[in-house]
Amino acid sequence: xxxxxxxxxxxxxxxxxxxxxxxxxxxxxxxxxxxxxxxxxxxxxxxxxxxxxxxxxxxxxxxxxxxxxxxxxxxxxxxxxxxxxxxxxxxxxxxxxxxxxxxxxxxxxxxxxxxxxxxxxxxxxxxxxxxxxxxxxxxxxxxxxxxxxxxxxxxxxxxxxxxxxxxxxxxxxxxxxxxxxxxxxxxxxxxxxxxxxxxxxxxxxxxxxxxxxxxxxxxxxxxxxxxxxxxxxxxxxxxxxxxxxxxxxxxxxxxxxxxxxxxxxxxxxxxxxxxxxxxxxxxxxxxxxxxxxxxxxxxxxxxxxxxxxxxxxxxxxxxxxxxxxxxxxxxxxxxxxxxxxxxxxxxxxxxxxxxxxxxxxxxxxxxxxxxxxxxxxxxxxxxxxxxxxxxxxxx
Length: 395
Fold this sequence. Notes:
The protein has two domains: 1-9 and 51-118, Up-down Bundle (Receptor-associated Protein); 144-395, Type II secretion system (T2SS), domain F (Receptor-associated Protein). Helices cover 77% and strands 0% of the residues. It contains 16 helices and no strands.
């Protein structure tokens, strides 16, 4: 049994339904024995912080919610989940949560010690559920929330799969033609000794440049990609990227609808579980997924501290659409903010589906035409040279 102290070891044994007979510490003896042994040159690998993926958090929340709903206590439920051995980092995190609960720590405090796995939204909702005594219901709502978020992400990813396949295959065909096909025709054209059309000369020049300097171009592209990735991680870079995404045609509708739906759904979930408005806005600011929108929420939160409503401060920034702020104002007037936010989330989720369909419908022919122009230029340039040579030979 591994534990921090004797009391923790006793609690772990009792949580498994067993009767402890004797508990003695052996870590010191093992460490001394290990210190006396000579090193055999084993490689020690230092691991980074253990974290759970979004899918693993969703599965963990679903299983924990089901176990609590069946009448099992929190300690026994975590012990049941912690005894599984899947070999994934989730095992370590769940076992750590179980040990913290056995020591008397609240679930929200235990979750807060794993910020890489459980976001502030998750911890705040669990804390609100513990205060209201409705932890099982909060877990159920968390499951519904994360399922919607995961479904939205999967819709966007699936919408991009086919266009990306078309683009990758088109570039692969183009590079194969420039590196393998065109050089063979170049040898034939040089043997004929006639003047080639301008497009053919351009094509041969591009092909020769790729053969000689293609590796350098690839290195430059990789370096630019790494620099761009690092730049995006900076506050200024993230802001430029997020502002750009909110202005690009086709992409703008998908990004904005997803952000507004996520904002409304998250805020509704927090308010329904008793989280204070200011605290809820602070959490939504960090989880909305866009720096520009997050800054506007922070400004609105500062205005709310003066006693004004949420809809007024959000409308003042002119970033959120009027429909959203008007529907939110109606919820404030009727006293049903959570219900109004739920309707807003559904409305923009429907908008997201519509914009995704428009995006894929428009992007597919654009990419197909782009690839067709590139490949067509190669084919036409070669054919023009063939026709020019055959005319010169009077065939």
